[in-house]
Write a structure and sequence with these properties.
Blueprint: E1 33-40, H1 60-64, E2 69-71, E3 78-80, E4 83-88, E5 93-98, H2 112-124, E6 138-145, E7 148-153, H3 161-165, H4 172-175, E8 195-201, E9 204-209, E10 223-229, H5 232-240, E11 246-248, H6 254-257, E12 266-269, E13 272-280, H7 290-299, H8 302-310, H9 324-330, H10 344-353, E14 357-358, E15 364-365, E16 375-380, H11 384-397, E17 404-409, H12 411-420, E18 425-429, H13 437-445, H14 467-477, H15 482-499, E19 502-509, E20 512-515, E21 519-520, H16 540-546, E22 548-549
Parallel strand pairs: 1-10, 1-11, 16-17, 16-18
Antiparallel strand pairs: 2-3, 4-5, 5-7, 6-7, 8-9, 9-10, 11-20, 12-20, 13-18, 13-19, 14-15, 21-22
Helix pairs in contact: 7-10, 8-11, 13-14, 14-15
């Protein structure tokens, strides 16, 4: 059985310098351009890697700057990048060896001192620490020599490895002179990545091959162009007309709309990386009743949700919320009988045993004798996939005597309703996504994120509180032993399946759409060398490295 590697593997060693190569050298035709629809609206002339995607130019996080490792959310595999190995010494000390022979694009050698500087710079400027590394147990980061960096923790938190691994490293000799990094646009970026900035306009940014890149022979293409587009429809038209090669694009009925227009060349790969979830506001009745929540789990038919919202491309979720690529290792087989398969009769039986009844019109009556009022189901305004699911769920709930009313709210209002706890039920994604189920369960179930004392719920929108879950999460954080971590996740699964703090509906995927008339080497289900990340996220660095002319 394959072990997930994010925190389970104690030591990683580089077996080849060019980790991540997927194309045999003899099959590679060099040259050409990768054309990506990478920005909705105009492109920002900003190459600051500390900013979130969308605040900087697309490609900053994939073509220019590099992380220490890349951890796949699909498989848990770890690809070494600027670091070649790591070791947890006592769950409070993480030591990494950095790669030798790497140079910044201005010719300055890359060392462990650049790594230590990057993290300490984030501590000095907390706005840069968007992953919260320094607020979640990190105590110090020190370069022990040119190729060794030591991370010390005040409290154990081994899952932070992924966020440390994915931090983009900047050159100390450049950034130590920048007094306000949040306002710095970095017009002449000094990088270690496979490409350099070529030409910029608000409509397109071109990156050219870094001929001194540390992986010999890569990248294979000469340049990458990220171009602006107006909308999903515009990007699809560019793909259909072979004017671009790739876009991160949710296409309605992608087989018919895109692939069937040119079956020889048009492709999509939508790997599952998260779940779409029905959150239940446990701070109010009837959602504070476990029996009612369990009944809802059986009353909702999840297969039609997949068909109507995603044309069957994205399947229904596992009842634990664990994504398919992680289920073989992490799902506890002793819980296999708790499926929450569609069974309205079972739902009514659960309600009846809990003291619910039905009036002469078939409406559900709670154990106190009061009719259960209409339940609101919140979705984002115009979000067609969620609206479709809400319509089907509303129909399903009639079988147990519950009326549902769909509420659409624009983003600001929608997220405020979720965090403020003013909603009844809501469709949203899992608020944590990583290479093990810990990330999902931590962000979605930890009581610290559940709006204590009526405050804002940062990510535990159901406002679920369980000492069992909190202790299991703490056990996982404090350990790097794979068996201990597995047992912690199994404990949480049992709570999820028996207490039903939320209802997983459908899987949630990345949306890679591409055409192969010119280029080969794309990540696919058969060769998932990255996690299907958008073209401007760090996982796409591997895609840019491996694409080549046909």
């Amino acid at each position: 059985m394959k072990r997930f590697l994010m925190t389970s593997l104690v030591f990683v060693v580089v077996l080849s310098l060019a980790a991540g190569v997927v194309a045999a050298e003899s099959a590679v035709v060099r040259g050409g351009t990768v054309r990506i629809a990478g920005q909705w609206g105009t492109i920002t002339n900003n190459f600051n890697p500390f900013l979130a995607s969308g605040q900087n130019a697309p490609g900053t996080r994939s073509a220019l700057y590099e992380s220490l490792f890349f951890v796949s959310v699909l498989t848990g595999d770890i690809t070494p990048v600027l670091a070649v190995s790591y070791e947890w010494k006592d769950n409070l000390t993480l030591v990494m060896e950095t790669r030798e022979g790497v140079k910044w694009s201005d010719g300055t050698p890359f060392t462990a001192h650049d790594v230590a500087f990057t993290f300490n710079y984030m501590k000095q400027h907390p706005a840069l620490d968007m992953a919260g590394i320094w607020t979640n147990g990190m105590a110090s980061v020190t370069a022990l020599d040119n190729n060794t960096v030591e991370f010390k923790f005040a409290t154990p938190n081994t899952p932070l490895f992924q966020y440390i691994a994915h931090t983009l490293i900047v050159p100390k000799h450049v950034w130590e002179g920048i007094q306000d990094p949040t306002a710095f646009t970095n017009p002449q970026p000094v990088v270690t990545g496979p490409f350099l900035v070529g030409r910029f306009t608000p409509q397109a940014v071109t990156y050219v091959r870094n001929n001194d890149y540390w992986i010999p022979g890569q990248p294979y293409v000469d340049q990458v162009v990220y171009q602006a587009t107006r909308s999903n429809d515009s990007a699809l038209l560019l793909l259909l007309n072979k004017q671009i090669d790739y876009s991160y694009l949710s296409i309605p009925d992608p087989q018919r709309t895109f692939v069937d227009r040119d079956p020889q060349h048009n492709r999509f790969w939508w790997p599952v990386t998260n779940s779409n979830i029905l959150y239940l506001n446990m701070s109010k009745a009837p959602f504070n009743d476990t029996a009612f929540r369990r009944a809802m789990g059986y009353a909702i038919n999840k297969d039609p949700l997949s068909e109507k919202a995603y044309y069957g491309v994205v399947p229904p979720s596992h009842p634990t919320g664990i994504i398919p690529g992680q289920q073989a290792y992490w799902v506890d087989p002793s819980l296999a009988d708790i499926t929450y398969s569609y069974d309205p009769a079972k739902a009514r039986e659960i309600l009846s045993e809990a003291g619910y009844t039905w009036d002469s019109a078939g409406a559900l009556v709670d154990p106190s004798g009061a009719k259960v009022p209409a339940v609101r189901i919140l979705v984002g305004a115009g979000w067609t996939d969620f609206i479709s699911m809400a319509q089907l769920i509303s129909e399903d709930m009639k079988a147990i005597g519950v009326t549902m009313v769909i509420e659409q709210e624009p983003w600001n209002s929608y997220i405020n309703s979720l965090m403020g706890g003013t909603y009844d039920t809501a469709i949203c994604w899992g608020t944590g996504s990583g290479s093990t189920p810990y990330d999902l369960y931590y962000r979605t179930l930890a009581s610290e994120f559940g709006g204590k004392d009526g405050g804002q719920a940062e990510s535990n929108y159901s406002r679920f509180a369980s000492e069992v879950v909190d202790q299991a999460l703490a056990t996982y954080r404090a350990s790097s032993d794979p068996d201990e971590q597995w047992q912690a996740i199994a404990t949480i699964q049992r709570e999820v399946l028996t207490k039903v703090p939320y209802i997983p509906l459908t899987d949630r995927s990345h949306f890679n759409c591409y055409q192969t008339a010119t280029l080969a080497g794309w990540p696919t289900a058969d060769n998932p060398y990255n996690g299907g990340e958008p073209g401007d996220e760090i996982g796409s660095r591997l895609m840019l490295l491996n694409l080549h002319l046909r």
